[in-house]
Design brief:
The protein is α+β, with helices and mostly antiparallel strands. It contains 18 helices and ten strands. Helix 10 packs across helix 12. The chain is globular, with a radius of gyration of 22 Å. It binds guanosine-5'-triphosphate (GTP) and manganese (II) ion (2 copies).
Length: 389
């Protein structure tokens, strides 16, 4: 074996779900550049290209040290010609012209600003861009038709742009726990998404809720949101049956009882005094409502108003699907994507957040833990903190 410190010394597996990817790595100077190109491809509706750049970035995140020369990349998978060109340029010149011009481009910046609005996807943002709109303020100024989610997205734009801290996530965890236990004692609540992977900040806070007695979780979401609404803790909420299942999961589509997998996209009203209290820096302050709640987002200051808006995702899962839901909602998005690709391409199985279907045996494989699912898939168990692909 080659001496350690040489990135090519390690044998890099080609699926992200076969590798450990820590949160902090040694190659952000390269991965950030590749992720700009990935994001730009997504804005241009080129999913294949977007995933290719994301996979290349992910391989570099899994390296034990900083890439110093193209030699270091010799044995690595997933690095296409284009990614290699970009890496080479950065190694030689310190930056890539393509990446920098993309970053500066009007289209990239407008798409970033517009898709950054809660409730706005690439298609809508692209239509607005082609109509000459560039920012949330342009939408207000020109009186664009907005749906309820987008209205909330524009209204709370500044708050929702600010990263959510772990302390804020913990305060919200306490609130969600209180809400859930008030309406269903014995229910279990788990923090998901980036925070479960050990991130210190996130764009939202994700929770998975279940009850050990199967069936008890039925109809739970409206009870939770009603409780939260009565307490004045919700600025926005939309509960949907899990359409993800029908849209994306195809053959893994499980039996009928799984249609009740519910999801709630919400925006919480988080008192900043509660966050200060939790972080133990200062004593809890009085709630200073200034009556400025209805002003334009750009003029609202959470320091002064005493609260901020935070995106929260709630998911309710039947106990029998909890392990699959846990695996499916921990992320990262690329890690999830790679798990499903591995299952399909290498194992002839179909994985979703509800179930694992074995096409060879024609049966659903039951699991109580994430470890069991990795074992069914013939994969080494990767803990959440190493799923930052
Ligand atoms: P930040 O929130 O930006 O910190 O990162 P995150 O990893 O938490 O991302 P996000 O909140 O968008 O998603 C969390 C996890 O839930 C990811 O693994 C997603 O793949 C997964 N996820 C998001 N939407 C859906 C969905 O509709 N269905 C399922 N099953 N999973 C989803
Ligand atoms: Mn999240
Ligand atoms: Mn989320």
């Amino acid at each position: 074996p080659k001496p350690s410190g040489d990135p090519s010394a390690m044998q890099m597996k080609s699926y992200a779900c076969q590798r450990r990817t820590p949160l902090k790595h040694h190659n952000s100077f390269l991965t950030e550049a590749l992720e700009i190109l990935s994001q730009n491809a997504e804005y241009n509706d080129n999913e294949g290209r977007s995933v290719a750049f994301r996979r290349a970035a992910s391989v570099l995140k899994a390296l034990p040290c900083r890439v110093k020369s193209m030699e270091d990349l010799r044995c690595l998978p997933c690095l296409g010609d284009h990614s290699q060109r970009v890496i080479k340029e950065i190694l030689e010149d310190g930056s890539s012209r393509e990446v920098e011009s993309t970053r500066q481009s009007e289209q990239f910046q407008a798409m970033k600003a517009l898709t950054g609005i809660f409730g706005v996807g690439v298609r809508t943002a692209d239509r607005w861009f082609r109509e000459g709109l560039r920012s949330p303020d342009d939408l207000i100024r020109t009186g664009q038709q907005l749906n309820r989610a987008q209205q909330a997205g524009v209204q709370y734009y500044n708050d929702l742009q600010k990263p959510v801290t772990k302390v804020e996530a913990d305060v919200i965890s306490d609130i969600v726990e209180k809400a859930v236990h008030s309406v269903l004692p014995g229910a279990e609540i788990q923090l998901m998404g980036g925070f479960r992977r050990g991130k210190e900040v996130g764009h939202d806070v994700d929770f998975l809720i279940t009850h050990p007695e199967e069936g008890k979780e039925e109809g739970l979401m409206p009870k939770i949101t009603n409780w939260l609404e009565e307490q004045g803790l919700l600025l926005y909420q939309k509960t949907t049956r899990n359409s993800y299942l029908e849209k994306m999961d195809g053959p893994a589509r499980p039996p009928n009882n799984m249609d009740r997998f519910e999801r709630c996209f919400s925006i919480f009203k988080l008192q900043t005094s509660a966050v200060r209290y939790k972080s133990n820096f200062t004593a809890p302050a009085e709630d200073v409502s200034t009556g400025r709640e209805n002003e334009k987002p750009s003029e609202r200051d959470s320091e002064e108003s005493g609260w901020r808006a935070v995106r929260v995702d709630l998911v309710v899962s039947p106990y029998s699907q909890f392990a699959f839901a846990t695996l499916g909602w921990t992320g990262s998005k690329l890690f999830e994507r790679e798990l499903r690709r591995w299952a399909g391409q290498e194992k002839n199985m179909s994985l979703s957040s509800h179930a694992l279907y074995d096409s060879k045996q024609n049966l659903y494989l039951r699991a109580k833990t994430e470890e069991e699912i990795f074992a069914y898939l013939g994969l080494e168990f990767i803990p959440p903190s190493e799923r930052n692909a």
